[in-house]
Amino acid sequence: MSSGAGNIIQLEEGWNNVIKKGAIDVLEKTLDDGFDTCFEPKEYIRIYTTCYDMCTQRSPYNWSRDLYTRHGETIEQYLRNTVLPALQNKTGQGGTILLQELKHRWTNHQIMNKWLKKFFTYLDRYYVKHHSLPTLEQAGLQHFKAEIYMNSKENSTSAIISLIDEEREGEIIEKSLVKSIVELYESMGMGSLDAYTNDLEQPLLEGTRSFYGRKREDWIAKDSTPDYMIKAERALGEEKARVTDYLNPATEPKLRRVVEDEILQKVQTNLLEKEGSGCTVLLANDKTDDLKRMFQLFSRLDDGLQPMADIVQKFITSQGEACVEKRESRLKNEKDKNDDPEFVKSLIDLHEKYLGVIRETFASHHLFQKALKNSFEEIVNHDVGQYSNADLMSTFCDRILKSGGEKLSDTEVEQKLDQIVKLFSFLNDKDVFAEIYRNQLAKRLLNQRSASNDAEKAMIAKLKLQCGTQFTSKMEGMLNDLAVGAEQKSEFDQRMEQLDTKLGFGVQVLSNGNWPSYQAPVVQLPPQMSKCMEVFQEWHDKKHQKRRLTWVHSLGNASVKATYGKKTYDLQVTTLQAVVLNAFNDNKSYGFNELKQKLNVDDKTLKPIMHSLSCGKHKVIEKSPKSNKIQSTDKFSPNPKFSSNMRKIRIPVATLEQSHNKNRVEEDRGVAIEACIVRIMKARKTLAHQQLIAEVLSQLAFFKPQPRVIKKKIEALIDREYLERSQDNSQQYNYLA
Question: Which of 409, 301, 416, 268 is nearest to 347 (CA)?
């Protein structure tokens, strides 16, 4: 094998006799015959050593460049003369056959590349590195790409897409085969995914768009919305699995977007509004699973949930309006009153139902929470009849919290209060609710009609959490007055024991700022009552020298012992009723005007009292002539025929007070608006008209005034020199310190 001195290996001698004959020819034959390639260690060392010697001989016998060139030529010739014809022969015989042949030839090429790299390791290590040439492995890939890949990629891509479409139609394909060819595409990128992206992924995405475009038209024509969504959900799941099985992970988001666009985005409106099976129908029939699937599918799209949330809002609003219309139609046949538990319960049930739907079906998504909020703001603020929804809701609370109202356990009371506070949060006129609630709370507390002090505190705590300390400060002050009053009562009771009186007498002292304003009608009290009042006045003045007492008899109550025939009754009445009953102790008859003069009381006060005693359920006083109205010409006397199966009888009287003082509410609102304007302008110094209006509306939490009302208050503050108009711009205001 040597030629000349020093055992020099000539190029042709080393190439033909050792490398080609012992390695390349054997390698090609083994690959063509389909056997596993394996060189004995001794043979491998002989070939490797020859290559090593030929690369390390001194110039001009260093054959490194020639060997590198012949390495490439060998691979090119094999690919061009053997592999390419074999692939061309399989073209047209079916996609699977072509891909199987391509897989076989790609595997063979990898084997050839590996062995040639082993034989020429020294060449790869020094010559290639020194001359900045592609490594033998890279060169082998480049030759395969140039000779095979570039000539077969169009057919192989079409074959892959056809197989994927077959799988989409439900057929079984050889996934490992597709995966192997995908890996070939990835390798052709030489370290990047360019070949895979341009030659396979892009045509695949186009084919996918076309495939699902046809499916969309077919499904939307014959399927209901729930059936369509089941198919869409299955298709998206299958595409995700397809990427996992044999495509590159980078394809997954692109493939998903194409499928979502074709089967969801382009028919979203059709699916949501489809007659007989759209979103509204699903909501009406409580199809939770279908709604959840719809939510999950449309959440994949950009702004995909907004149209669905709009439909949900419209539907909930329509359900609430149905409750309002039901109340409105009922009022045509019934007298309106501020106690309508059926209506309030229907709103509570509606809110609880769709709060659950949004929590469980729509995963508490903010768009659907907003839809629920907008719906109930419209429903709750839609008043019909004489009484506002604020009044109805407060009275509903009154039913729950007063004794003799709703028969509920402590847990049920807590639950109902939570539910009503949720409804309350949607009210625009929260200040009206507060005023009515405070009046009703006062009646419960003063008449000892509160079922549970703990429940009263719990409700106030819930309102405080919703609206802040300012909202509930007066209510808390009312409870505090009663707690302090209980301590004073025990102390005064000791003083009363020293007084020779047959009356059981107690006084509740209220702080004027915490409680509602009450009328204090003047009345001529019996001597026994007057004496007790004088004793308390004296005792109180000694303890609290700087406080002034105002007696409000309309809030007092009394227990009157009444004897009719042989039966004795315990009449539970107000202080004013007791004073009137006491006037009839002499068993005489009195005309209305005569009784008015005797008691020194006005018509407005006396008429409801006489109506309760002579026209109510328990007619303890007889009226002549008989009628349901009190006239100034009527005469009254004790009713000798009065009889009742109950010993303890409560005789209610029409209240002298309104549920709330509308003028006072308006005054309080005016003060709040002005304070808000001044607070904003003090911080901002200068502000445009529209900005100031917007800021005021955003800061007022308890009511929503009309912009024209705010404008009037701005004008009033300008007149009082809190603000001034800018000289440069009439639509801008300046704060005056």
Answer: 416
In tens, the pLDDT along 616-633 reads 888 888 888 888 888 888
CA dist 474 and 464 (Å) reads: 11
Q: Say how far apart CA 419 and CA 380 lie, in whole Å.
A: 13
Contacts with 139 (C-beta within 8 Å, 6 or more apart), sequence order: 71, 72, 75, 133
**458-480 burial: b if 16+ Cβ within 10 Å, else e:** bbbebbbeebeeebbebbeebbe
Written as six digits, the tokens of 521 are: 């009608």
In this structure, the number of other CB atoms found within 10 A of the CB of residue 91 comes to 15
Record the tokens describing residue 251, joined without a space.
């394809």
Whole-Å CA distances, 119 to 109, 138, 139, 288: 15, 15, 15, 68
Q: Which residues on adjacent β-strands are paired with residue 724?
A: 734
Amino acid at 124: D
Report the 10 Å Cβ neighbour count for 376.
Answer: 24
* 3 state DSSP class of 692: helix
Phi-psi region of 602 (alpha: psi -120 to 50; beta: other; left: phi over 0): beta
Task: Provide the residue type at 49 as one letter.
Answer: T
Task: Give the other-Cβ count within 10 Å of 633's Cβ.
Answer: 10
pTM for the full model?
0.77
CA distance 673 to 675: 5
Q: Whole-angstrom Cα distance, residue 692 to residue 685?
A: 11
Percent of the chain clearing pLDDT 90 (strictly above): 32
* Residue 79: per-residue pLDDT: 86
**Rounded-to-integer distance, Cα 23 and Cα 704, Å:** 93
* Token couple for 684: 């901002």
CA distance 148 to 109: 11
Tell me the per-residue pLDDT of 60-75, one tens digit each, with 9 for 90 and over: 888 888 888 888 888 8
Which residues have CB under 8 Å from 558's CB, separation 6+?
A: 573, 574, 575, 577, 578
Q: Which residue matches tokens 């499928």? A: 259
Amino acid in position 233: E
Burial class (CB in 10 A: 0-12, 13-18, 19+), 411: exposed
Determine the residue type at 331.
L
Provide the b/e sequence for 24-33 (b: ≥16 CB within 10 Å).
bebbbebbee
Element containing residue 624 per DSSP (H, E): strand 621-624
Can you tell me the distance from the alpha carbon of 251 to that of 254, in angstroms, rounded to the nearest whole number?
Answer: 5
